[in-house]
Amino acid sequence: MKANYDMTHAKRGAVVAQQGKTRITIYLDDQVVAGFKKRGEALGKGYQTLINEALNAALLADDAPVTVNTLRQVLREELHAA
Question: Which of 1, 5, 61, 62 has the fewest CB atoms inside 10 Å of its own CB, making it the most exposed?
Answer without folding.
Answer: 1
